[in-house]
Amino acid sequence: MAVIKDVAKLAGVSVGTVSKYLNTPELLREDKRAAVEDAIQKLNYKPNLFARNLRVQDSRTIAVIAQEIRNPFHAALFNTIRKEAMKHDYSVVLYSISDVNGNIDTLFESLPVHYFSGLILCYFHDMEQSINFAKRHEKVPMVIMSNSNRYFSKYDSNKIVHTDFTRGIQKLCEYLISLGNQNIAYIGCKTKDAAHEPKLNGFLMTMEKHHLKPHSIIRLEKEYTMETGYESAEQILKSGTLPDAILSDTDVMAIGALNCLRDHGVKVPEDMMLASFDNIEFSRYCNPRLTTISVPIENMSIKAVELLISQMENKEYSCKDNGFDLELIVRESTKQLLESV
């Protein structure tokens, strides 16, 4: 007797895709649906209706899709979502979009969709893809965590929690300029959302506002890691002239850059200031500690879980705005240049 694994093998798809065909075939692409149908007919496969009925019951499990599990920012985000969900008797499972080259549809088709009750999407690197994905799957209880308020009008306001990364970087850049820094370098990574890169755009707008040109912009096609930050800082040092400051668009990269500068005898903040974004736990334990923009992970996570539960449990919920402000945290990696005069 054929089992679900046999169907998946013959159809050339995952077991999760076959499961999705059996429960919600409308969520599959036409080519995959046809492949599964053909395999079922050839194998004369008969699904276990008892097991299937067990699966379609409310699992009280929330799936969280994030960019990169290794990044401390996403780890902290997942942990706060998990803690809040537990208060309401829900468990949480984390999936990484980086495992499928950033394609949400590919990841979603591989998920055992009936093993979770709702979805929180935290893919900050490609918000357009996130919004379009959510619109295609309106029947799935879902909340999007967004890096910009520009998406609030494009989607159901009761299904999106947002902050403004552009404004956050502008606040950070303004602070660096207020300390006397004019020659500022920027480090980050290239994202898939080429049409709207909120952090880089915020930096460029602020520099233009003050009639300043960036020392350099280093954006590697790599993951946000300490190693990438180290390599980015090395490229800046090889340019021959030191900037007044480096603005990193994540704390993780800033920590790597800090180690690179130390290895090359560049003192922070005496020789060069360093500021970053996220306010992860490690940023408080560097030497020197990092000046950074704090993302309100806890408040955003609480709101995201609240909105999702209202969908999963069919509760009425109405709000005008689920936006959260970003806070500048000043620490020892920056100081006024006048203090050393």
UniProtKB/TrEMBL annotation:
Entry-linked Gene3D superfamilies: 3.40.50.2300, lambda repressor-like DNA-binding domains
GO function term, MF aspect, one: DNA-binding transcription factor activity
Keywords, in A-Z order: DNA-binding, Transcription, Transcription regulation
Domain HTH lacI-type: residue ranges: 2-56
Signal sequence coordinates: none
SUPFAM superfamilies tied to this protein: lambda repressor-like DNA-binding domains, Periplasmic binding protein-like I
Entry protein name: Transcriptional regulator, LacI family
Taxonomic source organism: Faecalicatena contorta
